[in-house]
Amino acid sequence: MKLRSKIAVICGKLAYWIVRKTGRGSGSVIPGQIARRIDPEILAELSGMVRRKVIAVTGTNGKTTTNHILAHVLEESGQRTVCNRLGANLMDGVITAFVLAARASGKLDADYACIEVDEMASVKVFPKLKPDCVILTNVFRDQLDRMGEVDLICDRIQKAVESVPKARIVVNCDDICSYGLALRCGHQTVTFGIGEQIAEGMPTGMGEGVFCPFCGRRLAYDFVHYGQLGIYRCPGCGLERPRPEVTVTDVAYHDGAYAFVLDGVRVESGANAPYNVYNTLSAYAALKAADAPRDCFARAIREFDYGNMRECVYHINEAHVQLYLAKNPIGFQQKIFLISRDEKPKDIVIQINDAKVDGEDVSWLWDVDYRYLADAGAVSIVTGGQRGQDMELCLKYDDILCSSTTNVKAAVEELTRQGSKNLYIITNYSGLYRTNRMLNEMQAARKEGICR
Predict the structure, then answer these.
(1) Is residue 190 scored above 50 in pLDDT?
(2) Beta carbons of 422 and 389 less than 8 angstroms apart
(3) pTM of the predicted model, to two decimals?
């Protein structure tokens, strides 16, 4: 290992220690930023030390959960694994994961690396990361001001994938955008998908890829899971959803969680959302494609926490508080579906911001069908955040009664004391960790349990 690379690792670790010691953040980015300034090739240097396989996860929704499942299963199998668990998925965040996993000598002792990569950053990250396997979860509209429309996202990912010609692509073939992208790349692929409907009454939302990527004809669907995910065929050129190489069958939802058969084994998961069935399936498909250990998969999934700080549960003032992250129309639609599944009376707080990490263009709010909230049994709905009034306007256009607040904390405090004792909070990125911290503090003050 070059002396320059060793110095980069040491300085990155020191930066992490300083950031954490001074309480100036999570330290998920700055160590990588400093290490890269010292050695621009530090990522290639460290990723090249991984003994077996480097697995990258990209796509619009599900990256973090899928990546965490991968790391969890591999570690349960006794494998030493590098993972960017802090969720920083741009170049410096990816480097940070490797820097923190390396020893002070600069050496990396790892069998696998499971790395979540932002779609738009993938074109710069992949050539240095050199993944052996790339999971493409799905492609939906997300952060219009940064990413643009879906076809631009697909073009970006395609360039990234083409930069690593030896990588095997694990692709969601239920998503015409992802599958079409994989076909254009010409890489060796492993497909995954779900051939049976996994939830009754689930809103499909806005389908982004309803046209054939090759001939432009509108696709015909046997059924749609959500968005454009489903069983499709093109009446023009004959393209159709292939039979997936990895799938789940006998999907059942009971006692608030999904169970299914995967590769002949019954898997009892803690997933309460349909999209987490996809995330679990994609992780298994990647392990299979990478010829990685998966004998303990069913046991590991039974013990896996799908929360990831994005779907935490709290108990405050004897109220049950569920926090959800929603960052785009499909994600928001899914969260509404989960809320509507709860038949008990409930209060709902929706916090929308327009910080840079959220995407300053929040026009996507108008692509969500809020009518499902009208039948969700909400006692009250409160909107807040920098764009709380925009959110209020969207709801009022669908004749949904709501109010707006400039003090989300006070609203939560009041609702946990005097509300239905069943509170749901939806927030986008910039409010997520701040709200997590607020709820943890409120819960700790009452000494009523912990976040799961």
Answers:
(1) yes
(2) no
(3) 0.91
Asked whether the beta carbons of 452 and 443 are under 8 A apart, the reply is: no
Alpha helices (H) in 242-328, listed in sequence order? 274-289, 297-303
Tokens for 444? 């700790």
3-class DSSP assignment, residue 60? coil
Total residue length of the chain: 452
Give the 3-state secondary structure of residue 292.
coil
HEC sequence for 388-445: HHHHHHHHHHCCCCCEECCCHHHHHHHHHHHCCCEEEEEECHHHHHHHHHHHHHHHHH
Alpha-carbon span 75 to 343, nearest angstrom: 38
CA distance 398 to 368: 11
* Beta carbons within 10 angstroms of residue 186's beta carbon: 11
Number of CB atoms found within 10 A of residue 145's CB: 13
* Cβ neighbours of residue 324 closer than 8 Å, sequence gap 6 or more: 310, 311, 335, 338, 424, 425, 426, 427
pLDDT in tens, 268-309: 999 999 999 999 999 999 999 999 999 999 999 999 999 877
Contacts of 21 (CB under 8 A, 6+ apart): none
